[in-house]
Amino acid sequence: MKLIRPLIISLTLIPIVCCISVYAQGLEQMSLPDGAKARIGNGRAIKVVYFPNANRIAIACSIGIWIYDLHTEETIDLLTGHTGPVNSLVFSPNGNMFATASDDNSVLLWDSNTGANIGRLIGHRDDVNDVSFSPDGQILATASDDNTVGLWNIKTGEMINAIRGHSDNVLTLMYSMDGSIIASGSYGNGSTVCISNPNSHEVLHEISDEQYGIQDVESVDFLKGSTLFAVASYEKISLIDGITGKLMSTCHVESWMDQIYSVEFAPDGKTLASGTGNNGVCIWDVATGKLSQELGTDDSVISVTYSPDGNTLISVTEDGIIHFWDLKNQKLTKTITDFSFYIFSMVFSSDGKTLVCGNKSKISIWNPETLSEIKTIRGQKGPVTSLAFLPDEEILTSTDSNRSRLWDTKTGRFLGSFKGHRSRVNSIAISHDGRMLVSGSQDNSIRLWEIRPDELYMIGEQIGILKKHTRSITSVALSPDGSTLLSGSFDNSVMIWDINSRNLINTLKDHNNIVYTVAFSPDGNTFASGDRDGRVRLWDSKTQELIRTIRAPTYWVDSMTFSPDGRTLSFGSDDLVNVYDLQLEENLKTFIGHTNLVNSLVYSPDGKILVSSSRDGSILFWDLSKLVDDR
Questions:
Q1: Minimal CA–CA distance to 130: which of 153, 148, 155?
Q2: Which of 351, 343, 346, 345 is nearest to 604 (CA)?
Q3: What pTM, to 2 d.p., does this model score?
Q4: Interval 200-206 mean pLDDT
Q5: Contact yes or no for 36/618 (Cβ under 8 A)
């Protein structure tokens, strides 16, 4: 038996006013961050929990907690306060309070009736992944990437102790119904299941991969009124006795099911639901361990939740789709599609009336004034990491796995694809005359394609291949006159190419880390490059000499764009959006609102709106009118 020493940390319980506001245009405008005019997308859904009265559900997502009324089928509120994705949510036993865990290393406490934020628990040194109340509601247990299980006094906000039984990230935990033990699971090379005594803070049993073959634990759940608990791990569901630590049985998981992301016992304890990495929900007979139902989805299922009466099961897929299943009739009764996966890329039409964005598997065309989706283009085989219009803007190009595709923007009809890369295409650029497409790929190559119209399709013929980079190409950009090409790479370099001769002009090696993004100014006289270290470098296009280096407030500059007048350069660094004045040589504004990496930035044609998309599954419209008018 291992005695755990207390973790000495600083902590605070901070009362916070919850920001809940509704803008007249709709739900997207709830709880907008400072400086934002509008939002598209509700973020990425992660977990759904029923309110005690079962009339509402709370949806933990990448940008906060959405409250959804099951009777009216409407979203009521967006609760914000975390600065990172909300990973988990749990109600107190009396239902008056709920707690949320986040990647911002904190736990927030909320009043279930008013939605008011009533406290913050600070003390973990890394992401907090899961939360569980003791049966009497006095103690909250937390699971963290700092490898510990925290125990908190809810009244005082003090951390009572930290249980150190895991050697890797603790993703999941739960109190037994009688409060005598806590089961927790970790993910990674040292993945284990620990059974701990919350009173003595001792680890009673440590179950390793060698014992029961349990790898990468994602979820645990106790059987009601029992100390038996289920463990979801790689290709395995295990039922373990919490008192003895012995494996009692396993569900008959097939290898095709891949990672098991989530498990939950039905209220009557007779069945167990699981979410799998191979596009489905499985219902298991607890007594026999056999599969009794299979409910198919289009993506991996990361979370499953039973209704209090056990008649309905809610599943959340990796791409953020929420499904409601009638278990008795084995039917899908409702789907919520307001949530989305990472948004990888965007492009504005020249008149500012159309905004196109690409995510994991589709292209969405939006009216930025009404915030209404005009059209959805499906048929992508992979993430849409880059988008570009042809000059007439009637044809759109997109990346798709190891090829580029062309689409009719009015009809959504597929027009053709350019295939030649051996790995995923990360970035594309179109020449000013619309006759050439440039694509940069993870196969370390850049390919040049001639675009030729046919009767029904667009034909792409490869007319050149550039192979000088030694690692994946991250970004490509053409100069306004189409004569020069920039490329950024995982090899830490920026290469400058002559398009006509296909010759390499110069290699810039000033960056000390991956160059994620490159861009030309509108007049072509300067260009910029941004890297993983948080440095943006400005260059003279004619001499290729460094003009200056801009230090971002954080790391990971993954997106960058010049304003239409060339006066400002905006770049994303981690989850921040920065606006830098090139003449004043100072940062004009840093917008805070996303909770994950900013993947793409585009200006409106008049330069008064900056639009950012993020891996948090949302798009934010930032108001620059005051900055522009004050110049």
A1: 148
A2: 351
A3: 0.89
A4: 97
A5: no
